[in-house]
Amino acid sequence: MTTSWRLYPGPGRVPDAAAPDVRGRSHAISASVLLPGPDDGGVLVAHGDRMAGYAVRVAAGRLVHHYVHGGGLTTTVSNRTVPWGRTVHLEVRVDRPREGQGDGGTVTLLVDGADAGSGTLPVLARARTGYTGVDVGCDRGLTVGGYPSPSRFTGRLGSVLVSAEDDQVLDEALMWEIADAAG
Is 129:22 a contact under the CB 8 Å cutoff? Predict the structure, then answer.
């Protein structure tokens, strides 16, 4: 079973309580975009900040996925450029390994459905994804990937679709520890 969230750009942030739940599970983030020129780009979606979270953006003409967990930033960059001047479908897939095969994940980048690169995440968040909510079309505050804020998307972006699989593995003890620390 797949659970999906459709997110739209706007002036406010989606709070954590309403954010897509991608903790410890396979998920995909996709959007159809139009880049007017080769210098256009910016953040499609960002959840969290430099301490914990993820972001998908177009930078220097390439699809980029940032993932921060446990103090470490992992960045996966497409091996081909995103076409400009026409509508393009961009997708990032994060696949969680089967039970007992590690705590990380595999990232696959797709441009118009074609493989555009891959990477490995050393660990997937199993208690909390981020703390500052979700931005669509920008990343306010302390950005997930260390790029300048707000990194507004300068092309056309209608919505972002986040789909999560039913293979979630959570760390219940850590979730309670975080909740107690937050008061």
Answer: yes
How many domains is the chain built from?
Answer: 1
> Quick one: CA torsion of 17, 152, 115, 163, rounded to 10 degrees?
20
More confident call, 125 vs 174: 125
Chain mean pLDDT for the chain: 87
User: The CATH number of the domain where 163 resides is what?
Assistant: 2.60.120.200
Segments forming the whole domain that contains residue 10: 2-182
Task: Assign 183 a pLDDT band (cuts: 50, 70, 90).
Answer: very low
Tell me what pLDDT residue 11 has.
85
pLDDT for residue 102: 61
